[in-house]
Design brief:
Blueprint lengths: L19 E7 L4 E7 L8 E2 L3 E8 L1 E6 L2 E6 L3 E4 L4 E5 L6 E8 L10
Antiparallel strand pairs: 1-2, 2-9, 3-8, 4-7, 4-9, 5-6, 5-8
């Protein structure tokens, strides 16, 4: 059976970042979140207990991973290893949409710093 899902049709998931975050896929092997950040919005620094891959769908922003940060634009993939502090800030003038893949799906909560 083919399952089709649009991010706009998924409810916003309550989160400690107070952002538009939607879980568009979840099973034991992976979790996929869709973030839609308005200009100036940012994630709270946190450590994820699994590897994370970010794919920028639209807009541009700055990603902070450990002691480094870089500007990232549309159609770019960024990797963040397990247990490294990371966060994003929308530094552009348009919404920043990011697909977040957590592999495998986290079994424990992500601590916010």
């Amino acid at each position: 059976m083919i399952i089709k899902r649009k991010w706009e049709d998924v409810a916003i998931k309550e989160n400690k970042h107070h952002l538009d975050a939607r879980e568009i896929y979840h099973d034991v092997h992976a979790q996929i979140m869709h973030l839609n950040m308005k200009p100036g919005e940012a994630l709270v620094p946190h450590k994820t207990p699994v590897d994370v891959v970010f794919y920028v769908l639209e807009g541009c922003g700055t990603v902070y991973i450990g002691d480094e940060h870089i500007e990232v634009e549309r159609d770019t993939l960024v990797e963040s290893p397990v247990n490294i502090t990371h966060y994003w800030k929308n530094t552009g003038k348009e919404n920043l949409r990011i697909m977040v893949l957590k592999i495998p799906s986290p079994l424990k909560a992500t601590p916010v710093l």
